[in-house]
Amino acid sequence: MTEQNYIRNFCIIAHIDHGKSTLADRLLEYTGALSKREMVDQVLDTLELERERGITIKLQAVRLHYRSRDGKEYVLNLIDTPGHVDFTYEVSRSLAACEGALLVVDAAQGIEAQTLANVYLALEHNLEIIPVINKIDLPNAEPERVRREIEDIIGLDASEAILASAKTGVGTEAILEAIVRRIPPPRGDREAPLKALIFDSIFDSYRGAIPYIRIVEGRVQKGDRIRFMATGAEFEVNEVGVFTPAPRPVITLAAGEVGFLSASIRNVKDTRVGDTITSATRPAKNPLPGYRKVMPMVYCGLFPVDSEEFDSLRDALEKLQLNDASLRFEPETSVALGFGFRCGFLGLLHMEIIQERLEREYGLELITTAPSVVYRVVRTDGQVEEVDNPTALPAPNMIDHIEEPYVEATIMTPKEYVGPVMELCQEKHGTFLNMDYLSEQRVALKYDLPLAEIIYDFFDQLKSRTRGYASLDYEVKGYRPAELVKMDILINNEVVDALSVITHRDQAYHRGRALVERLRQLIPRQLFDVPIQAAIGSRVIARETIPAMRKNVLAKCYGGDVTRKRKLLEKQKEGKKRMKQVGTVEIPQEAFMAVLKVGKS
Amino acid sequence: MVAGFVFARSMALAEWPNVSAVRLKAGFPAYSASLPQRPASDLLSSAPPSLFGFTKATSPLGEARSLQTKASHALYIHIPFCIRKCHYCDFVSYPGRSPAEMAAYCTDLEREMALVAGKWLPGPAATVYIGGGTPTVLPACNLEQLLAAVDRFFGRRQGAEVTIEANPGTVDGAKLRALAAAGVNRLSLGVQAFDDDLLRAMGRIHRRRDIYRAWELARRAGFNNVNLDLIFGLPGQDLDAWRAALKEAVALQPEHIAAYSLQVEEDTPWGRLAAAGDLPLPGEELELVMYQEARQILAAAGYKQYEISNFARPGYHCRHNLTYWLNGPYLGLGAAAASHWQGRRWRNYSELHRYRHALSSSRLPREEIETLTPRQQMAETMFMGLRLMAGVDLEAFRQRFGVDACTVYAREIECLYRAGLIEEKDGRLKLTEKGLPLANEVFVEFI
Ligand SMILES: Nc1nc2c(ncn2[C@@H]2O[C@H](COP(=O)(O)OP(=O)(O)OP(=O)(O)O)[C@@H](O)[C@H]2O)c(=O)[nH]1
Ligand code: SF4
Ligand SMILES: [Mg+2]
Hints:
The structure holds two protein chains of two kinds.
Chain A: E1 7-14, H1 20-30, H2 48-53, E2 60-67, E3 73-80, H3 88-95, E4 100-106, H4 113-124, E5 128-134, H5 143-154, E6 162-163, H6 172-182, E7 195-204, E8 208-217, E9 219-221, E10 225-228, E11 234-236, E12 239-243, E13 247-250, E14 252-254, E15 258-262, E16 276-279, E17 298-304, H7 310-322, E18 328-334, E19 338-345, H8 348-361, E20 366-368, E21 375-379, E22 384-387, E23 399-414, H9 418-427, E24 431-437, E25 442-450, H10 451-465, E26 471-482, E27 484-491, E28 494-495, E29 501-504, H11 505-522, E30 530-536, E31 539-546, H12 562-577, E32 579-582, E33 585-588, H13 594-598
Helix pairs in contact in A: 9-10
Chain B: H1 3-6, H2 20-26, H3 40-45, H4 62-70, E1 73-79, E2 81-82, E3 94-95, H5 99-120, E4 125-132, H6 140-153, E5 156-166, H7 173-181, E6 186-192, H8 196-202, H9 208-220, E7 226-232, H10 239-252, E8 256-261, H11 269-275, H12 284-300, E9 304-307, E10 310-312, H13 319-325, E11 330-333, E12 338-341, E13 344-348, H14 352-360, E14 366-371, H15 374-385, E15 392-393, H16 394-401, H17 405-408, H18 410-418, E16 422-425, E17 428-431, H19 439-443
Parallel strand pairs in B: 1-4, 1-11, 2-3, 4-5, 5-6, 6-7, 7-8
Antiparallel strand pairs in B: 8-10, 9-10, 12-13, 13-14, 15-17, 16-17
Helix pairs in contact in B: 5-6, 5-14, 6-7, 10-12
Bound molecules: guanosine-5'-triphosphate, iron/sulfur cluster and magnesium ion.
């Protein structure tokens, strides 16, 4: 238990790739949390996927000890956060556990869309913000320009912004000193009844669910009986601890401190991120405000390839949901794919990550259907219905009109790309709102855009048309009526429900063609001709045929190497297993995501 | 046919073609029984119910082992040398090795024979097949020594079929005569194509005139059981060119013709060209037409198709290869050679130094030893057996495994039957006309 005056809780926020995790490395190293030998790049990115993709997905907390120049020893609780827009929710959860934030800005790139988005979040939480201009070692670094941007665009005093390089370690000490000097210590009555905010949790197969907590009031230690205020569930604490970054038990966690507790919580539903933990014997009256509920923006169907794995899929989703409250799911049935779940995500990257984690960490084989936004269908009788699944769209004669979600998109781009960006926004049914010169070089454009376009291929297009120089942030604004139709795909003359999509009428033909073409490439030949059609209602708008397979036979003997033959056949068999039999046709998993991929070619 | 390696003692010799003539001429009295000829179909349908000499009651793994060692078997010898590598070749063969190195390899082979014969006590071989590579790159003396070593360590059954693969560019009269004298009674000529442009494009070392020369020499040396290997589906080959090749082959009147469709393998020059889209392959549709054309022309010329790629005049099917297709026992000698013995499969090291190293410390040069589960054995029996036009003998399957194929593979057989790819006739399960070119689609169901 550390005296509050010697605690500093802060997180690191930035646009994606501006160097948060690398800066965290330097802080860990400087404070001796990890030896040089234990050090790897972005050591806090522990998930396999994070390491592979070089991005942070999950927030990560760690406790540091720092002896300041004032001679005192401080406990610093650092939370590294993701930068990608899909994981903004992770950022906002982290902010609630802190009093300050390091705002990292890339000295070569300057302020980007998520820099702004995250700063505003931090300001909402009344955090002390310390600007850090990172990567000053880069030859094209322009720290002074970036300093001006911080002042002009964000309105923060950047005179004390720290120039740093997370690569070389320049500025590390200055940052630590600023944390100690500028971020206020936590407050909170340590004698009051326990109030601890669950900002994250993980599932450990031996120890059950483990909530990550920030103690706001009171204290907690081994042997205490605790209660989860939302669920009412009670447990006896068998361990409290901190991350160093490895989990290490401590005797007590008290107001102002960040750590974890373990209490043999078997049912993952008992510990909900955002819930307040209190003492069962001396409960607090009111819970902490918790977190605003986040609404998923895109939905897709997740189906086990092997229908026997439905229950394992549910288990896995529940465990992931533990530390990812933005993940939603409910059972769904598809004619083509059987039993699965309709899942809601914050964005496409989020969706991709969850899908990959399910496959890798839980060994599931999944078929993912094309993502869809949530449409609002106004029926002829005036009833309003939310539809996140094209198959659930009522019959056309029962629909008065359909509304689709709109976002306000902020696009930052060097000024030479303003033309192409505006063109793109036009194509995607965007409505121009305004344009701001952030500096002489850079422009912020605001557009209202259909969310469906953003998840479809807007971001890829934006990147390619601005050679990667533009950044995008968006926020859901509301619903607007649009000319939307449901497009069905027929394979071998049968509608495959899992392939239906809702699309703008004026794009249907184009998309139908592209999709049918893509499916023709993806679906292997069968023993008979397979027609593929795109249709709106009963009207076929595009058609392709996969010709029947005519010849597949292994010729040679290979001197009796039967094993080799068997292995070839086994490989062929494996390929077949990864396909879904729909009617008489075998369709590979990728086909169900083809809708998404067509815009990209 | 099975009898070739199982029933040899009791009845087999009567079943097999006139291997005698060669030997008589070659002055090899030990093998000189005069054998009547029987048509292939007869052989297949008259195969006794028990394919491998064990009955329903015996466990396929237990009893079979002892029976197998006593039963006759096939012997394969791999010669992993070629003058130069063909552009499509992914066989284990090393180009441009010195005579000394090849001779040393032959010594290694003898070492291996000693070890193998000592370990398995297999008894005399029913068939011997020297393949490659290009076995005929070896000088006659090496080949003679090898065959002598086979006799020393294994022996050959009476009437044994002894095949050697020969590249038309690597034979001469003396070598062929020496081979015949050493008891080789079947020659497999790697003709592949008759057109010089195609042969050049394939990277073959021989040309059209070498084929005719080799052919003449072979007949003159007394080989009266000769196979010609042909390949179709070659880049730039059209239907007419293929027809012409077939007609030329038929005109020579060989006893056996193997018509393989080109398999483009990844790790070959052609594989790389194909991946880059730079190989003008005829495409599936034309390949299929070529295949059907081969079947027709060869049938009309009196060659009966008995396997997916193999055609023979009556009585001249390759007994050695039948062992593979009937999933029988064989021992493979030499680098990369595969063996199937007592419920296990293994393969020798492909790299010469590893092969040699193992032998120099008196170890069998084996890798990838695999003990087959009954289920795997069944699968192999099915997918190898279905390659034969005669199909899989269901009663023999039942005797061998103690279960009915139609029970084990009820669902698969039902599906394939309904798709029109297989049929059951006279107690045999076989590919239909429709199934033949789609054989892999059928085989995969039994995996
Ligand atoms: N030259 C240079 N490169 C840096 C510096 N800091 C980070 N990088 C590089 O920038 C890339 C991104 O760094 P990360 O630390 O993963 O960035 P991040 O902000 O954590 O990224 P997300 O968590 O995905 O938002 C990596 O390749 C780092 O090596 C720096 O000071 N100088
Ligand atoms: S001769 Fe046969 S083994 Fe030798 S390289 Fe050519 S194809 Fe391959
Ligand atoms: Mg990071």
